[in-house]
Amino acid sequence: MIHSTIRLIVSPEKREEALAILLLMAKRGRVEPGCISCRIYRDALEERIIMIEEEWKNEEDLKRHLRSDEYRNVLIAMEMAVELPEVKFETILRTNGIETIETARSVA
Asked: Less Cβ around it within 10 Å: N or C end of the chain?
């Protein structure tokens, strides 16, 4: 699985426009082959920050998405940023859930 995050800092004047562009991309992206999830977040403490989080089944699906017309919308939003966007692609080999907390807390 590939986990992608992009953190943008946009001006207050461009925030709503950037969000509208990204929300449209997220809605369409969720139905792309290999897309596990696509979410857009606004920072509760810093209103200029927008974060895009995506999860993809594999690198091939991610690369197809990055070449897509839909991804151009992400690039447009990135150009609205007032600072260089923070972009990360992480490969995840294993994911655990609540059982990790349960295991840790059950150890004496």
From this structure: C
Exposure pattern of 13-49 as b/e (b: 16+ CB <10 Å)? ebbeebeebbeebbeebeebebbeebebeeeeeeebb
Range of the domain at 81: 2-106
Query: For 77-93, b where at least 16 C-beta lie within 10 A, e where not — what string?
Result: bbebbeeebeeeeeeee
Which residues of the chain carry a pLDDT beneath 70? 108
| pTM of this structure | 0.84
Q: Which CATH number goes with the domain that contains 37?
A: 3.30.70.100
Give me the number of domains the chain comprises. Answer: 1
